[in-house]
## 1
Amino acid sequence: MAIDLPFIWALILAIGVMMYVLLDGFDLGVGMFTAIAQSEEERNMMTATVEPVWDGNETWLIIGGGGLFAAFPTAYAIIMPAFYLPVLIMLAALIFRGVAFEFRHKAVRRPTRIFWNGAFYGGSFTAAFSQGIMLGGMVQGIHVEGGAFAGGAFDWLTPFTLLTGISVVIGYMLLGACWLVLKTEGELHDKARKWGRMALAGVAICFLAVSFATLSVDASIGDRWGFSMSHIEPARFLPLAPVPLVSMALVVWLWRDLSMKQGAVGTAPDWRPYLLAAGIFASGYVGLGVSLYPFIVPYEISIHEAAARDNALVLMLVGAVIMLPIILAYTAYVYSLFWGKVKPGDGYHAH
């Protein structure tokens, strides 16, 4: 039996992107919540929860982008021109956010600190929104002619992509709130539970809105799910029904967990809200895969058409088999090393 190398590499890229979303998503979410911190001490507590891990989380973005370039060069050559501006905005926001993360601790004068605080949560929002814009642009499709991008410079800017942009922002805020539930105690912990419930309600609304809006973007997606505005085809829909059903069950479960106060009888362990939020993202990611597969450039070029030569894929796969376990092991080690609640004064900038 021949090994389907393009499929394996598509799976590796999908895992890399999902790891980035789940890990960098929560620290972007925490960054956005710093905008509503009531004091500098509270803001420092928030940033202390992500200080040891935020830069390592972005490793997965490099894996996703580099893997796309190496394994699917045709797709890379089409996707990048289609999203030049949002990609540049996202990268600039991530860089500016990283600079602000360091400089806000060194600022002595209050106006300077206010500026860097604003840069930190502004960069977090801009990066998250840009990623949502690109997600929407992929779902609505890219205009391709002769194997090259043939659309306009602003094809990515539509009402649908604005909706997906806001949806990703709210989703990252949910991850951020659940991370704060995991890492904090006391008043900030209780606030994080409240913020989490608000974000979860927004995620549920956005999930429904994006799902129905997607039906108007490309009819083939509705056909694949056996679902349209006018009817449902049970033969197609029922095998895929567990995906949205699992999502709904996780939403209800997470709402219940976030509604309990820390220390109350029957309260879930503080790690569970984040795990449930990650499950909601994962189920949505599976749904996205069902909608788009086998296309890597929707709805024009499949993973097999865009893949590099087999000998190149094999060579890179050898490297991936060696490096990915190392990256995973290092990530797990860092998270285990800094496991536990953050206390006032914690953080490598605290002293």
## 2
Amino acid sequence: PIDPSYPAERIAGMLEDAQPPVVITSRTHQHLFKGTAAKVLLIEDIDLENGPLFEGPCPATADDLLYVLFTSGSTGRPKGVAMHHAPLTNLIQWQLRTSVCKAGDRTLQFAPISFDVSFQEIFTTFAQGGTLVLITDEDRLNSTQLLRKIIAQRINRIIVPFVALQYLAEAVERTGEVPSTLKEVFTSGEQLKITPAIANLFKQLPGCRFCNQYGPTEGHVVSELELKGDPSTWPALPNIGKAIDNVKLYVLDEQMKPVKQGEEGELYLGGACVAKGYIGRDDLTAER
């Protein structure tokens, strides 16, 4: 997926690396794809009522490409992470096993489609037979509006970064309105901080499961820490927890040897979570 708000040169670079055969867009954004070798289809022209867009079966194996997401590019040219079916299937199966949400429960799609959390929101919800509730950008940016949407739509699960959770907790304090239907809250994407507002929120949600999840774009979710007990006893900066099913985490030194407890090192990922590599960038894939 491509966020149409990206600069035109970044979009061109993404298309150059990914080489998609088809681009599906809207008339509003079709100008962004002039000059691409891909076939451009306009969503307004697609008639899904009279049959599928592509004829025939679409078989997929665990090793087939599922999506390509580009890193932020803060240290240079953005890199397209090529994620195949196996890692996301492993993530979905793990979450179905550990989640308190079941068939019929309602999940908010907070993450934009260009962020990997959106795939977690979408496919874990569908796999468990739940309902995915879409919101507008205005809902995402207005914490009071977001809180009232969660309450009105009887949302049972949200996955949000720390900043959004903090704003939501402040909205609860400000309005006195509590999202009591929440059964599960996951946070990821940035360092979690247990602020007074967040602790107070979960004191008002005694039956809600709260987890800190971690993972780079190259591995999606690789670890989780569930915060239990009295929220006033939670650490100010929770750690990233333990590896999910079929994933290995290693903290290694510069000689690629495991560090001792208390020593600093770099985190390495192994197992079912690792993406195929960087699309169109074999040199960078080899470095990793």
## 3
Amino acid sequence: MQTTKSFLSDNSSGAHPLIAQALIASNTGHVEAYGLDSYTRALEKRFAEHFGKNSKSFPVFSGTGANVLALASATRSFQAIVCSDMAHIDHSETGAPEKFTGCKLIGVPSINGKISPESITPFLSGRGSMHASQPSLISISQATEVGTVYTLKEIRALADFAHAQGMKLHMDGARISNAAVALSCSFSEMVRDCEVDILSFGGTKNGLFFGDAVTFLDPALADGFLYLRKHGLQLASKMRFISAQLLAFLENDLWKDLATHANARATQLKSGLEQINGVQIVYPVETNAVFVELPLRVVGPLQKEFPFHLWKGDNQARLMTSFDTRPEDVEDFLALARELIG
């Protein structure tokens, strides 16, 4: 049994017991394949409760799969996708968005991982020129790659800006649950009410074995998605095993409980680190990520006992908490950091 205490990633955690129970319970008998089962039908209705009766949602295997298909559904190959210079779609998806959409990605300088209408505007100067890729979609990550969140006002401003420019707004919601908890809002308030067009809905990072979804707030954008999902290798034949997990995730707001716990552990970690001399918090801690500069001499010994990734350079640590990170895990990490730093 693996007992290592890790701050590597929320992808490194296991699955929540209620998710495991749901997966096992769905493993009974024969049902129709390819999403024609009762679990997927029930999930479609549950997503519609969150995102509106006209929304369309489709389970997929992974976050990258969700992003790639979401972007492909709303772009043509001569167009461009505007995103943060830290965006997961630009730096952590091995070129899949460019390969599958044919679009150019335009990375806009960000502040704490976030972009704005003001920062995007200078990158739209080539619109209308036959010699330039045409920006047609803005993609934001919520929460961002550094754990910060766009406020509802900021999301709505980006949506209004995008629509005024004839563009669409996509939200990479790999950590949407953590963001919703941070903002004390519902999925509906963050997405539908802010007029996001397409959402990559994340579950894997918050307690699922696997499984995410693509949600279209504009149902017209979902035309052809059934074919695109198969074409993009994201159609699960035994889809009930994804849908059953997502149903359990949404049942009784389990998503909220798990994200609340993960966020709280990051806050606990931040509060303790701030009390240690020689340690500097790099970005605001708003969800389940803590970015911190540590004395170089303690990085190796800390990583040996509590694995984590380095973000920039040799001493900027990215510490990710999960639904199963225990308060005592955080306290043990802090105690060792204090001992090593002296």
## 4
Amino acid sequence: MKVIYFQVKNAGEKLKKIVQIATLHFEKGEPLLILAPNASAAVYLDALLWSSPQESFLPHEIDQSELLALTAQKINVNSASAVLNLCQETVGISLSPQLIYEFEDLSFPETQQAFKKRFGDYRQRNFTLILENLN
């Protein structure tokens, strides 16, 4: 299993990358599960994906089986092998991910600490860890 992580300095960078990752999977026809930390965040992401990218939108559903699915329930509702984790916790093996996207959020000490724990958990499970540049 592979974890690709991105260092972000602010919310704007993170939101832009979320849209880029979702767009990439949508265009390739590859299911993506987006794990939100709570229902409010899922609703916010829902609005973001319906309005982004600016020239179109990304069809998706909350808690339903779609190519792009959002959930705060930690359940793989669309049987995706790729998971975009926006939670403070490590992605569980029960979701059967082959690819996990993570953010190292440098904007707050709390988010940095949570990432360090997740990074350590993935390393302990022998995942391949890859730092990608924001593009």
